[in-house]
Design a protein that fits this description.
single chain, mainly alpha, two-stranded antiparallel sheet
Length: 267
């Protein structure tokens, strides 16, 4: 008596299996991370750079030479397209050419240009002497300004040495510089007399200032005496300035005008 039937196979220990067995064994499903080698069709894992079967080098699943060719073609195409876009953009955005305005045509005028007329000076007259004469006029103006300050100081009910001392220092500085100017006037033979007069004048101012400044500032009486002597010396400036201008006129030189030379200390 047969143990099994033709409709099924007998399992181990004479029991029939619950389900029929498949005729072939499954080897697995297609994996999404598996691709075939483009040369030998060998299954390879994604990311493989070389096929172990045929030795083909791969880039992103494509044979390396072909992938490099694709990259080169893409680079060239991108460069051409990008350059064309930039060229078109520059043409579109370029402003319209500005109209070129020709420079104005200047027609020379027939009116003569005025020129400064310089005095004709005798070349035999030293330039240093003429320059010194001009400087002496400026120094004399400074002397007169200080003389007015001394007059105001003496007009006070109680003249102070502190007010007179700064004026004496200014006069001493002017006189020191003036002596050098007086010497330069003597470079011109005709200016010898004026040179000597200026030198004596400035030396008198320097000497009086030195005597007054040697006293103590608290000795107001000494400073008042020095101020009075200074005004007397400045009184002789009127005649000296007139002689300087006569000398300058010989050389057609006009000295700068100064304030009236009415010396404050003149009687």
């Amino acid at each position: 008596m047969a143990i099994g039937s033709s409709s099924g196979k007998v399992g181990r220990f004479g029991r029939r299996s619950g389900s029929p067995r498949a005729t072939t064994l499954p080897i697995g499903e297609i994996d999404s991370n598996i691709f075939s080698c483009p040369s030998c069709s060998r299954p390879l894992g994604k990311g493989s750079s070389r096929c172990p079967g045929c030795g083909t080098r791969l880039i992103a699943g494509v044979q390396a030479p072909r992938a490099i060719g694709f990259m080169a073609i893409g680079l060239v195409a991108g460069t051409v397209v990008g350059g064309g876009i930039m060229a078109i953009g520059s043409v579109v955005s370029r402003p319209a050419d500005l109209a070129v305005v020709p420079p104005p045509i200047v027609t020379p005028t027939q009116v003569p240009i005025p020129t400064a007329v310089l005095p004709i000076v005798d070349p035999a007259i030293p330039a240093s002497a003429l320059s010194a004469l001009g400087q002496s006029a400026v120094l004399n103006q400074r002397v007169l300004v200080d003389a007015d300050l001394l007059t105001l100081a003496l007009a006070s009910a109680t003249p102070s040495g502190a007010e007179i001392a700064p004026v004496l220092r200014s006069l001493a500085s002017t006189a020191t510089f003036g002596r050098g100017v007086a010497i330069d006037v003597g470079d011109w033979d005709d200016g010898a007399a004026v040179s000597a007069g200026l030198d004596a004048f400035y030396e008198a101012l320097r000497s009086i200032s030195a005597d007054g400044l040697s006293a103590s500032v608290g000795n107001s009486r000494a400073y008042v005496t020095a101020a009075e002597e200074m005004l007397e010396a400045i009184a002789g400036l009127t005649e000296l300035d007139a002689a300087s201008r006569v000398l300058a006129a010989r050389a057609d030189l006009e000295l700068p005008s100064i304030l009236p030379l009415d010396a404050p200390g003149a009687p």
